[in-house]
Amino acid sequence: MSHGVDTGPHGAAAPVPDNAALAVVTALLARLNRALVRLAMLALILTALVLTYSVVSRYFFAAPTDWQDEASVFMLVGVTFFCTAHVQSLRGHIGIEALAGLLPRRVNAARLFVVDLVSCLFCAFFAWKSWTLFYEAWSEGQTTSSTFAPPLWIPYSMMAAGITLLAIQLLLQTLVRATNKKGAP
Residue 181 — left, alpha, or beta (φ > 0 → left; ψ -120 to 50 → alpha)? Predict the structure, then answer.
């Protein structure tokens, strides 16, 4: 089982695309992913501050807040989904490596290609359904059932955008694997 990021010599697990167009799109997505990870770091710190404020205000001042739970959950949804494409670009997701060591190199490469392709298709379906949820929440003005009642399109939009980026990352990795020359790393 692999728990860490299995990176190459330059800190990137993904092979460099031979195709110039794929290389440009991959570089642009990498820049977007890095920006989103930085934003997610700030959101995670802000979430910790919001939850700390909530505890302090309830404990010391007996002043309950009704907004902190939903605000924190919304930010954590964004953090989770906006970081998935970056983690995938590093091949940092947990994977079972029992087969990888037993299979011949070519068979393992085919297995990875099929896994990336199936994952891409699943994420594309998930993205489509997420954008559908976003549209319904937006057009119907759906809110949470709390007294704070923030609009539900906020977490749905972050979920949809994040899973769309993950699907694009998987598509790029699949295309790179399919188009790179056999001798390329």
Answer: beta
DSSP the chain: -B-S----TTS--SPPPSSHHHHHHHHHHHHHHHHHHHHHHHHHHHHHHHHHHHHHHHHHH----SSHHHHHHHHHHHHHHHHHHHHHHTT-S-B--HHHHHS-HHHHHHHHHHHHHHHHHHHHHHHHHHHHHHHHHHHHT-B-SSSS--BTHHHHHHHHHHHHHHHHHHHHHHHHHHHS-TT--
Q: What is the pTM of this model?
A: 0.85
Which tokens hold the place of 159? 């979920």
Q: Give the pLDDT confidence of 19-66 residue by residue, as tens digits.
A: 889 999 999 999 999 999 999 999 999 999 999 999 999 889 988 888
The structural domains of the chain, with segments of one domain joined by +, span: 20-179
Contact assessment for residue 18 and residue 172, using Cβ atoms and an 8 Å cutoff: no
Q: What is the pLDDT of residues 65-122, one digit of tens each?
A: 889 999 999 999 999 999 999 999 998 776 667 777 788 888 888 888 999 999 999 9
Hey, which residues does 151 pair with through a beta bridge? 143
First to last CA, the chain: 23
